[in-house]
Amino acid sequence: MSGAPARRALGIALVLGAAIAAVLVARLGCTSSDSAPRVAAARSVDSAAPAVPVVARAGAPIAPSAPDVPTALPASLEGTEADGDVRADAGGHLVVDLELRRLFDHFLSASGEEPLEALRARIIAVLRARLPATAAAEAIAILDQYLAYREAARSLVPAADPVDGLDQVHGLRARIFAAAVVQAFFADEEAATYAALARRAVLQDQTLSAAERERRLAELDARTPASVREARAAATAPIDEMAREAVMRARGASAEQLTAARTAAMGTEAAGRLAELDRAHAAWDSRLAAFRAERAQLLADPALDDAERRRRIDDLLARSFTEPERIRIEALDRIAAQAKNR
Questions:
Q1: pTM higher than 0.70
Q2: What backbone phi and psi angles, to 5 degrees, belong to 87?
Q3: Alpha carbons 323 and 338: distance in angstroms, whole number
Q4: 225-243 as b/e, with b when 16 or more CB fall inside 10 Å?
């Protein structure tokens, strides 16, 4: 890849890397629990995996019983089912995995719609309904840690360096949770964020040649867990495809060649959806061009006074576009005017 398409593709990669890193670092600081109770033990239900203890804090009490659960659900939870497949092992102890955190997050997504005590009560009710008594008590202990972690994370002073910020969040987690909980709840997320930050640093390093940049990115990929690589590939696939198509168009590729490349990369169904999107974009561009041409004629007509010219342009806009489309055109006009005045 060379020239303007290559620069655009690199720019897209830089923006994407920055966005992924910023979003993930923000998410890392806004998720978890309370420094209250720890649990006696939580063991893997998979017989092939070793038991993973969840060590209790000294003197930490088991969480108290939940208060009555409010009958009416918060609006954002109406019609939903609780996420997370919480489980106990054969001994009746909690299996600590990401599904448990997903259950917590499902209900906590309604924070602000009802008091935290009510959300906690809802979670506890589900835990007790799905788990035996010992596992439920262990899960409630981790829930209270998770709530305290979320509260403590809000008090963290943002670090200037995103890597320092991620280290700070990781340290908070290590102080509140047992290592097994940190691993189960946050390991993949942290690995993805560290990988995104490292990739961004390489992509932004202007001292690197193209070959050296590719070599360093390959080294990072080799050290990145497969699950993180797969998630990143899925997230960047549309951007990568746009960059490839921009290069193909610049080289004069036909519509048939673009379709064949899309089909090979994404499959027939996805290629068909993109083709339909292309047709919709082309139709929009045609309508917009026709409107602008007619508007230009009205603006240039010396027989019209300002009031009549404005009335005719407004009428043309109303006849040509729906209300949401008119808002979009006004925004496009503002952007064009700002670019022209720079």
A1: no
A2: -140, 160
A3: 23
A4: eeebbebbeeebeeebbeb
Give the H or E element holding residue 88: strand 87-88
pLDDT by position in tens, the chain (length 342): 444 444 444 444 444 444 444 444 455 555 443 333 333 333 333 333 333 334 333 233 333 444 567 778 888 888 888 777 899 999 999 999 999 999 999 999 999 889 999 999 999 999 999 999 999 999 999 999 999 999 999 888 888 888 899 999 999 999 999 999 999 999 988 988 888 888 888 988 999 998 999 999 888 888 877 877 777 677 666 777 777 888 888 889 888 888 888 888 778 888 888 888 888 988 999 999 999 999 999 999 999 999 999 999 999 999 999 988 988 888 888 888 877 776
The tally of CA atoms less than 13 A away on the side-chain side of residue 220 is 22
Q: Which two tokens stand for residue 287?
A: 């309508």
Q: What share of the chain is helix, strand, coil (3-state, %, to 5)?
A: 70, 0, 30
Closest CA to 197 of 10, 15, 12, 20: 20
Tokens of residue 174, six digits: 């290590």
CB contact at 8 A, 240 and 252:
no
Six token digits for residue 46? 């998979």
